[in-house]
Amino acid sequence: MTEGYFCYMILATATPADAARLTNLVNRAYRGDSSRRGWTTEAHLLDGQRIDEEGMQEMLAVPEAAMLLCLGENNALLGSFYAHALGQKVYLGMLAVDPQGQAQGVGKFLIRAAEDYGRQHGCTISKMTVISVRTELIAFYERQGYRLTGATEPFPTDPRYGIPKQPLTLLVLEKPLA
């Protein structure tokens, strides 16, 4: 239980039955007018959706991966974070927090849970990618102990995940898991 704006936070793991509400949360957190209420919006960088329900179902079916959920009162979905154990590294992605509840500790709660997931799967390094122009988000992750590695990855070109309004590159961040 974590104190803050929310009375409590419960960690859960998503199942295929959660795909529709997860898809809705992720799209509200990243794209469109609703995302502009929070500080993690990508609406100024990308058009379209962040993910569709089919893509969410595919993520939920990946072996050695989990979509971690932060649930509040009445089973309200406050946030989610994807963790995929790949050998010595756990890849973390698509951190989504309800735009109306951002800056209340949900993201930090999910980061800790995802890192624990990696440790439980024998991972020694946590890895994530962030759009290079998202300086405020990079700074947030650096405050959580992540460091830029100097590596980059191309931004996905599949329109199912959004249509860039400008050329975008992903920066790789890592953190040792003790």
UniProtKB/TrEMBL annotation:
Which GO cellular component terms, listed alphabetically, does the Swiss-Prot or TrEMBL entry include? ribosome
Give residue ranges for domain N-acetyltransferase. 9-178
The cross-references to InterPro entries, in alphabetical order and at most eight, read: Acyl_CoA_acyltransferase (IPR016181), Bact_Acetyltransf (IPR050832), GNAT_dom (IPR000182)
What does the record give under GO molecular function? acyltransferase activity, transferring groups other than amino-acyl groups
Give the superkingdom in one word.
Bacteria
CDD domains (alphabetical): NAT_SF
Q: Among its keywords, does the record have Lipid biosynthesis?
A: no
One Pfam match, given by its short name, reads Acetyltransf_1
Keywords attached to this Swiss-Prot or TrEMBL record, sorted alphabetically, are: Acyltransferase, Ribonucleoprotein, Ribosomal protein, Transferase
What is this protein's name?
Answer: Ribosomal protein S18 acetylase RimI
